[in-house]
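re: the backbone from monday

yeah here it is again, tokenized this time
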């Protein structure tokens, strides 16, 4: 099977506060990694397989800024170079494990999967709300036992909210309202918008904003393949629109961020965050939005885990039927396939 992973890309490996002094294992795009913070606080990622007999370094121990393999004691520094082997003075030249470029930004730790020389931090897409004091964020990560493409499909078509997430974020208007889709092929960004002028307010927003009646609800998706998905959500009492100068004091803004990080060909790290610009100090609203969004994510996880099993069990050649709501998802598949086939070229 040809790998569906897009290489030479930045992926969210973890939230910054998941990585501390303890060794921490996470697999990204099929590559097992071990993370830790060096004594100066710098986050480090190394291949999580000892070069000697593959023992996972994540199940070994730290000694200062080195990792001592738990099997026979090969010892690695933060660059992955072996600085000690047992029973001999000479350290083989090839005694090293790969180290991975990391960047901490917007509360995430991004890891570069691909050729080290191509790792350009300027290519990392931004989610500034997650580290902005003007917003309050709740977040989590759920393991998904399904290929990442299924999560991309899911997030680019929110009409499923009506059917899968009724009682949380779904109302009839989501499925009823047509979408507009724009694809910036050059930048490889996909935009899908659904703007509901007069819609029921789902519990997710009624409870958090306190709006009692019907709402104007905008869902503006911006997908930056492969990893970062943004849903700019605007909620206001029905008929309340932004001012001509772009200010928007009558609305509530929620930035829903997903990082879609493939773990293996058939499993995915589903990072989710919900940032809001209202009720900033309200712990009850935070608790409610956290629990509600996690419940929604788990509904998606349950559905996609079923789909993964269905796909794994079927004979090839199944013909899906696509309709208007799938325009964004189909564009995403096209761009991901293109990216997987031709990773970025070396900068001139
Ligand atoms: S497997 Fe690590 S030292 Fe042997
Ligand atoms: Fe969903």
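seq for it, each position gets an aa:
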């Amino acid at each position: 099977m040809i790998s569906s992973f897009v290489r030479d890309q930045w992926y969210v490996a973890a939230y910054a506060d998941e990585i501390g002094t303890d060794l921490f294992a996470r697999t990204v795009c099929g590559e097992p990694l071990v993370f830790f913070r060096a004594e100066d606080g710098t986050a480090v990622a190394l291949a999580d397989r000892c070069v000697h007999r593959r023992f996972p370094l994540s199940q070994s121990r730290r000694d200062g800024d080195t990792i001592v393999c738990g099997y026979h004691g090969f010892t690695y520094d933060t660059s992955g170079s072996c600085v000690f082997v047992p029973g001999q003075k000479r350290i083989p030249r090839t005694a090293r494990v790969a180290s991975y470029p990391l960047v901490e930004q917007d509360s995430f730790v991004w890891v570069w999967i691909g050729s080290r020389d191509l790792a350009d931090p300027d290519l990392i897409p931004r989610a500034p709300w997650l580290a902005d004091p003007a917003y309050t964020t709740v977040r989590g990560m759920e393991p998904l036992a399904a290929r990442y493409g299924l999560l991309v499909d899911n997030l680019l078509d929110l009409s499923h909210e009506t059917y899968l997430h009724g009682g949380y974020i779904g109302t009839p208007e989501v499925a009823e309202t047509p979408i507009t889709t724009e694809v910036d092929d050059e930048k490889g960004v996909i935009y899908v918008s659904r703007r509901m002028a007069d819609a029921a307010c789902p519990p997710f927003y009624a409870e958090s904003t306190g709006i009692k009646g019907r709402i104007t609800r905008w869902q503006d998706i911006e997908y930056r393949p492969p990893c970062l998905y943004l849903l700019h959500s605007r909620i206001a009492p029905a008929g309340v629109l932004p001012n001509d100068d772009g200010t928007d004091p009558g609305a509530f803004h929620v930035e829903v961020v997903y990082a879609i990080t493939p773990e293996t060909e058939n499993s995915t790290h589903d990072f989710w965050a919900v940032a809001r610009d209202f009720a900033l100090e309200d712990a009850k609203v935070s608790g409610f939005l956290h629990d509600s969004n996690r419940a929604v994510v788990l509904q998606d996880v349950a559905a996609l885990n079923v789909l993964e099993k269905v796909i794994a069990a079927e004979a090839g050649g199944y013909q899906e039927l696509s309709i208007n709501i799938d325009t964004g998802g189909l564009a995403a598949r096209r761009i991901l396939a293109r990216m997987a086939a031709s990773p970025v070229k070396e900068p001139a």
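Helices lie at 148-156, 161-164, 172-176, 203-209, 283-313, 327-341. The pocket of FE2/S2 (inorganic) cluster (ligand 1) is lined by residues 50, 52-53, 55, 69, 71-74 (CB under 6 Å).
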